[in-house]
Amino acid sequence: MNVIPFDDPRLTAFGLLAEVHAGLVARMSPALASSGLSDVDFGTLIRLARSPEQSLRMGDLAAQTGLSTSGVTRVVDRLERDGLVVRQACATDRRASYAALTDKGAEKLQALLPQHLMDIEEAFTGLLTEEQLEQFLATLRVIRDVVHPCATAGAIEPGQTVRP
């Protein structure tokens, strides 16, 4: 019988990643909740804010957030009711629609981001040197591109133009 040691570094790496993620989510959630946003709401809004024209095709938004198409529809419905996003029809494909950040959504993010960035700095990025952070980001991108290859769906590549 082939015995795998319980102290295998692969188990340690995965366990540490899970612990860090859980700890950071717990640390960040109160500030998000006080602004009336869930983690999923914030993730959706920040992805839109960081996208070209502050909008994404609904399918790309689902792929980026890891939500199902019905899941992203429910999130966008809720954010649209709150005036934070709006749906826009695609000029070239009647079957497609975009979710776009509204001015109110951008204002909500602007109000929330100073505290959120301070929390990130205090509990995460500020604990690393500039070189460690650069290497960490590169490492995360390598892993992300394998386990969540659609995470950049709809992003504009250098030399590409924005949607018509």
From TrEMBL:
Coiled coil: none annotated. PROSITE patterns: HTH_MARR_2 (PS50995). It comes from the Bacteria. Residues 10-145 form the HTH marR-type domain. Pfam families: MarR_2 (PF12802). Gene3D superfamilies: Winged helix-like DNA-binding domain superfamily/Winged helix DNA-binding domain. PANTHER family: MARR FAMILY REGULATORY PROTEIN, TRANSCRIPTIONAL REGULATOR, MARR FAMILY. This is MarR family winged helix-turn-helix transcriptional regulator. It comes from Nonomuraea mangrovi.
